[in-house]
Amino acid sequence: MTTKTPRAGTLEVTMPSDREIKMTRCFDAPRALVFDSMVKPELLKRWMLGPPGWTMAICEVDLRVGGGYRVVWRGTGPREEFTVSGVYKEVAAPERFVNTETMGNVETLQTNVFTEANGRTTFTQTTLFATREDCDATMKSGAGDGMDACYDNLEDMLRKMA
Amino acid sequence: MQPIGNQESSAVLDATFAALADPTRRAILSRLASGEASVSELCEPFDMSQPAISKHLKVLERAGLISSGVDAQRRPRRLEARPLAEASEWLGRYREHWEKHFERLDALLQELQSGKRQKKKRPSRLTRKGEPR
User: Fold this and answer.
1) Is this complex's ipTM strictly greater than 0.95?
2) Which residues of B touch A16 (CB under 8 A)?
3) Which of B97, B107, B112 lies at the smallest CB-CB distance from A143?
């Protein structure tokens, strides 16, 4: 099998089947760092932002098999709240973790794989929906109402972080 | 992401994505993007038998991604753009959503690494104070 290392910064999104969404993205960093960025609350807070004006109110991660995670974003309005939660099914840092993800009524199984070559990390996430209907519903609603607002303030954010 | 439509368009999307899941079918579409072609013309670049290509063409046709021309002899296949546009629009939005997140992650990873590599990138207040004039 030949593996080609994708260019850093190119996100590939495909649907290998009618209930799977696969993302592949290369990062210019060792995989331990990329892995940590996806499971450590203090790092998750830095890049998993909600829509403009929203804050990540809760970010709890218990990274072990059977352990859970919960991330809650809140806007300024009384009903502006969005939660993503799940349970870790497999944890093999820094190579791979498998987790369930619950958003609204839909639960998916996500397989996250990290491979490193020449100091770069290729991250692959496969999201498996239980049914095709769930996949359709998600496609129609977007990957989460709260999260999917436009990120007009992205440039600001990047500038602040730089 | 915005809702992309009704039940009907969701069924169309299903068929579209299933059809697109195969690399040969994607290659056929990309060939047809540069102009219509008959089945035998399509066989050449792919090094596949005519029945094999025909099978792929049937899947693409059922998904509404291609159609057959009127020329009874050649029955040239041509690309149908609309279902493709719908599918790619949804995936495009998904992609955009995540790309924005990953761009932020890029910045964070860079920051974390530069912190490790050279601790003195941004001089601390203390260093600045103690700088010789």
Assistant:
1) no
2) 21
3) B97
